[in-house]
C-alpha cells in the first residue's frame, strides 16, 4: 500500500502490509514489534490512555475512602470519651469480642493508618497522571482524510470479505487536526473493524465520512454501518473497560474504551448511537488547528 501523508510528509507507522480486523481489535501490547506497525504503532500513547483510565477508576473509590476516614475520625472524637467513661465503669466490657480498652487504644491508630494510606495512593496516582500526560502529539498536524484513506487501504482485504458496499465520503480542504496521526489511525481502524464485523451479509454497507462540524467547531469523522445494531443495554456499557458484546470471539473489550480515551485526551469526543437491526454510527469530533 502507499504511504499516508500529513503536513510534514509520510505518517510514520501507517504504511505497511494489509491487516485484518482480528489484529485491529486485539489491542495486544505484546504484538507491537511484530511488523504491522498499525495498531500498536504508538505504545506510549496506548499505555498512556489506558493508564489515564485506570487512574480515574482508582481515584473515585480512593476519594470516597478519604471522605469516610475523615467522617470516622470526627465520629470517633465524639464517641471515644463516652466509651472511655463506660470502660471505666465496666473494665471487662467488650465489643465484638475485643476489650474496650484495646479498641480505645487501637482505633486512633487505625484511622490514622487509613488516612496515611489514602494519601499515599493519592500521591502515586498524581505522579502517574503526570506521567500519563506524555501522549505524543504530531506537532505538524494530522490530515484526517489521509488517515481514513490509509485505514481503508490497510483493511482492503478484510473489507472485501465483509461487504461489497464500502464507501468513503470525504470533504475536501479540511483543517489539520492536533492529534498524532498514528493514534487517530488506531481509533479509526477499530471503529471500521467493529462496523465490518457487525454486518450480517456482504450486501450491507459501511460508510466513512469526514466533514467540518460547524456547530461544535470540530472536524468530524463518522463511521456508519448497516449491521445488526446494539441493544440499548449493551450500548450503555460498550465504553466500559473489558466489556465486550463478542466475548465468545475472544474480544478483550478494550477497543472502544481505549479509543474514547485517546480521543478525549486530545480534547475530542467519541460517541456511538445504534438501532438494533438497523445499524450503528460512531462519530469522532476533534479540534482543528
Summarize the structure.
The chain is of the alpha+beta class. It is built from 8 helices and 9 strands.
Task: Report what the structure shows.
The protein has 289 residues and is α+β, with helices and mostly antiparallel strands. The protein folds into 2 domains: 5-42 and 137-286, Heat Shock Protein 90 (2-Layer Sandwich); 46-132. Helix content is 46%, strand content 16%. It has 8 helices and 9 strands. The protein has helices spanning 21-24, 43-89, 100-132, 144-154, 156-162, 181-197, 232-235, 255-264; strands at residues 5-6, 9-10, 94-95, 98-99, 165-170, 205-213, 218-225, 269-275, 279-286. The strands form 3 sheets. A 5-stranded mixed beta sheet has the order 5-6-7-9-8. Strands 1-2 form a two-stranded antiparallel sheet. A hairpin with a 2-residue loop joins strand 1 and strand 2. The longest helix has 47 residues, at 43-89. The radius of gyration is 26 Å and the shape is elongated. Mean pLDDT is 79; it is low at 1-17, 22-42 and 134-139.
Amino acid at each position: 500500500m502507499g504511504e499516508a501523508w500529513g503536513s510534514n510528509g509520510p505518517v510514520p507507522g501507517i504504511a505497511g502490509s494489509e491487516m485484518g480486523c482480528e489484529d485491529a481489535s486485539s489491542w495486544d501490547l505484546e504484538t507491537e514489534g511484530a511488523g504491522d506497525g498499525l495498531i500498536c504503532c504508538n505504545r506510549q500513547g496506548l499505555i498512556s490512555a489506558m493508564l489515564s483510565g485506570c487512574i480515574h477508576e482508582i481515584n473515585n473509590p480512593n476519594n470516597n475512602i478519604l471522605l469516610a476516614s475523615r467522617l470516622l475520625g470526627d465520629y470517633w472524637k465524639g464517641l471515644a470519651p463516652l466509651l472511655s467513661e463506660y470502660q471505666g465503669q465496666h473494665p471487662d466490657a467488650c465489643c465484638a469480642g475485643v476489650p474496650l480498652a484495646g479498641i480505645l487504644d487501637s482505633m486512633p491508630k487505625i484511622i490514622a493508618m487509613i488516612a496515611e494510606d489514602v494519601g499515599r495512593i493519592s500521591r502515586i496516582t498524581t505522579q502517574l497522571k503526570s506521567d500519563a500526560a506524555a501522549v505524543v502529539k504530531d506537532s505538524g498536524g494530522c490530515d484526517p482524510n489521509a488517515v481514513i484513506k490509509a485505514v481503508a487501504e490497510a483493511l482492503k482485504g478484510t473489507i472485501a470479505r465483509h461487504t461489497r458496499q464500502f464507501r468513503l465520503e470525504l470533504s475536501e480542504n479540511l483543517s489539520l487536526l492536533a492529534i498524532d496521526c498514528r493514534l487517530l489511525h488506531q481509533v479509526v481502524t477499530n471503529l471500521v473493524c467493529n462496523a465490518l464485523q457487525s454486518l450480517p451479509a456482504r450486501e450491507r454497507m459501511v460508510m466513512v465520512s469526514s466533514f467540518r462540524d460547524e456547530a461544535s467547531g470540530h472536524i468530524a469523522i463518522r463511521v456508519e454501518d448497516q449491521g445488526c445494531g446494539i441493544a440499548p443495554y449493551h450500548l450503555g456499557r460498550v465504553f466500559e473497560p473489558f466489556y465486550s458484546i463478542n466475548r465468545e470471539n475472544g474480544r478483550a473489550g478494550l477497543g472502544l474504551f481505549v479509543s474514547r480515551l485517546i480521543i478525549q485526551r486530545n480534547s475530542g469526543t467519541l460517541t456511538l448511537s445504534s438501532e438494533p437491526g438497523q445499524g450503528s454510527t460512531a462519530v469522532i469530533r476533534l479540534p482543528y488547528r
